[in-house]
Amino acid sequence: MHNLVTVNNVSDEFLSNVFSRAKEYKYRRQHSRPLWDELHGRLHNHLLLTDFFEPSTRTRFSFEAAMSYLGGMVIGTENAAEFSSFKKGESLADNFKVISAYCDIIVGRFLNEGEAQTAADSSMVPVINGGDGKGEHPTQALIDLFSIIEKFPNPEKLRISFIGDNKHSRTVQSLARLLARYTCIKEMVFMGAEEVNFSDEVFSDELFGIAKDHELDVVLVNTLDQSFIKKTDIVYITRSQIERHYFKGTLQGNFIFTNEIADMMPAHGLILHPLPRNSELPVEVDNNPRAYYFQQAHNGLFVRMAILEELCLNRT
Ligand code: NCD
């Protein structure tokens, strides 16, 4: 694999290599400083360029830390819209034609859906999509799935509920597509206020890559329906993506996932959130035994180290 623009081009082999390597890195980090230090040198002399047109905390820092711990080098801008020649009217294609000559791999974050592909088409080195508008965020989906497998190592008939701004969240787009491949997923429920949820017109099996022979129940509901919460194994919450709202007026019904609602989940349940959070996930939930979102964010370092290694050394 050369670029990582969408989960659609993630092969099973790539995924399994990334996950086994990420697991090993996490073990080293948590158990042995010398074993962790040994990783320094794996990407010696490789240079990562981060080109971000939108704000970021986890994606940019974890990629930059990942490259640094592997012994590579990092250059970049956290605000390409302001500090690159984009501001002078340079096209994204020209930007990537030029900057790809200065590095070995690029992580980009883009303002609009589809721009990650434009960047990849213009680049001479692998491009990783760190989020393109409401399009996709494939590395986040890999982190999410890695976190799910940590909790459910032998997944079977899992039910997942996506709660919040499903329509505009690129993390939901990528994770739902990735999960739709696996027959161990029994049910996907999309819960969100009408303006921000999928509708029957928007949601289609083709769009989400759901195979015809996959007995997957897809449910769309416009309320925070407790009957689903009570039987869901995984809740995946997202904040309201107000920067991508094109409808007029204020959002009716921003769902708040309180601790009381969290406690309705089965005891083995898992609560994920790509972060950052706003009011949809009160701080009180952090102490709930099902809360896993900070560990999920920490996993970002290990999964992204593995992704960089796979792509830089062109292993799969
Ligand atoms: C997400 C994103 O940028 O799409 N953040 C992240 O990378 N973890 C989620 C969000 O912004 O709501």
Topology:
Blueprint (H helix, E strand, L loop, with lengths): L11 H20 L1 H5 L9 E6 L5 H12 L3 E5 L2 H4 L8 H8 L5 E6 L4 H8 L4 E6 L5 H14 L6 E6 L6 H10 L5 E7 L25 E5 L4 H4 L4 E4 L21 H4 L7 E3 L20 H20 L4
Parallel strand pairs: 1-2, 1-3, 3-4, 5-6, 5-8, 6-7, 8-9
Helix pairs in contact: 1-11, 3-11, 5-6, 7-8, 7-11
Bound molecules: N-carbamoyl-L-aspartate.
Radius of gyration: 19 Å
Bound molecules: N-carbamoyl-L-aspartate
Helix count?
11
Biggest pleated-sheet summary: 5 strands, parallel
Instruction: Identify the quaternary structure here.
Output: single chain
Helix vs. strand class? alpha/beta
- Along the chain, the helix and strand elements come as HHEHEHHEHEHEHEEHEHEH
What do these coordinates show?
The chain is of the alpha/beta class. 34% of the residues lie in helices and 15% in strands. The protein has eleven helices and nine strands. The strands form two sheets. Strands 7-6-5-8-9 form a five-stranded parallel beta sheet, covered by helices on one side. A four-stranded parallel beta sheet has the order 2-1-3-4, sandwiched between helices. Helix 3 (58-69) links the parallel strand 1 and strand 2 (73-77). Helix 3 (58-69) packs across helix 11 (293-312) and helix 7 (138-151) packs across helix 11. It is globular, with a radius of gyration of 19 Å. The N and C termini lie close together (6 Å). The mean pLDDT is 93. Bound molecules: N-carbamoyl-L-aspartate. The site of N-carbamoyl-L-aspartate (NCD) has 11 residues, from helix 3 and helix 8.
